[in-house]
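Module 6 notes. Inverse folding takes a fixed backbone as the condition and produces residue identities as the prediction. Think of it as a translation problem where the source language is geometry and the target language is the twenty amino acids. Below is one complete input and output pair. Work through it position by position during the lab.
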């Protein structure tokens, strides 16, 4: 094969692989695991070929294979934050028990750990935008598990079990909102209100749900761009929230710190 033919085939591959990547960005959640692996392989080869072309340095077969393996691992990811519970139309969920079972049976345990860590980290990133309590809770859980794993305190199998449990906890936490009749937005406020475990000893759950609805509606009705730009307006928002909480006699005596979590969640919501 002449150098010209090789060059033209390489350029054609790079072009088609790039088109594949762009197409997948529109429908990645519809792919099954095998399709994701195959797409990741093409992306790995495309990236490697691009690097070879750019650097102009010949690589040995061993170097090429090593780089493909590394790029393949990093390619099995989303280009943006994944909402792991959003695939309602297809009925497919990245936390589906069948998907988790496939991950647990992978022979490449190191890769299974990386996939789970990446998916969970992306969900934590989503929580950082929307849910203060879940963001802190699951971020701490993920950090603790990975630190133990990297320090040799957990084996591949053990950390996979920890990460899968975390995935199930996330799915159960999401389902809790449905059982309470709360949207994801409202659930974030409910989580803030109920963060201290003792809170539910002082209020009926119906009261906490009612407070959640009223708090969410109050913020929606009074939302203003000034909350993001002016400290005086932000202070007014905090006074409005505290007035509502006081009407519900929240927080109870001895749990005064609880109000800071609620205010923090409201400020996060105002900045969205």
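Target side of the pair, the amino acids:
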């Amino acid at each position: 094969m002449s150098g010209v033919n090789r060059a033209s085939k390489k350029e054609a591959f790079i072009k088609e692989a790039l088109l594949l990547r762009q197409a997948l960005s529109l429908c990645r959640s519809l792919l099954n695991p095998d399709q994701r692996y195959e797409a990741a392989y093409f992306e790995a080869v495309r990236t490697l070929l691009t690097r070879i072309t750019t650097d102009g340095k010949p690589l040995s077969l061993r170097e090429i294979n090593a780089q493909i393996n590394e790029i393949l691992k990093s390619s099995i990811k989303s280009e943006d934050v994944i909402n792991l519970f959003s695939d309602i139309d297809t009925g497919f969920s990245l936390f589906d028990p069948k998907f988790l079972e496939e991950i647990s049976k992978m022979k490449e345990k190191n890769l299974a750990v990386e996939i789970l860590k990446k998916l969970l980290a992306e969900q934590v990133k989503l929580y950082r935008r929307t849910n203060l309590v879940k963001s802190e809770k699951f971020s701490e859980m993920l950090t603790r598990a990975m630190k133990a794993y990297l320090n040799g305190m957990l084996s591949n199998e053990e950390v996979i079990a920890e990460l899968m449990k975390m995935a199930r906890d996330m799915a159960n936490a999401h389902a809790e909102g449905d059982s309470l009749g709360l949207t994801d937005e409202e659930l974030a406020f409910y989580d803030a209100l109920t963060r201290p475990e003792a809170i539910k000893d002082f209020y009926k759950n119906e009261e906490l749900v009612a407070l959640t609805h009223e708090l969410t509606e109050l913020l929606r009705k009074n939302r203003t761009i000034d909350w993001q730009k002016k400290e005086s307006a932000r202070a007014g928002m905090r006074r409005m929230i505290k007035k509502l909480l006081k009407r519900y006699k929240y927080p109870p005596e001895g749990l005064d710190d609880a109000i800071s979590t609620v205010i923090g969640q409201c400020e996060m919501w105002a900045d969205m």
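Reference fact for the lab report: The CA atoms of residues 111 and 133 lie 29 Å apart.
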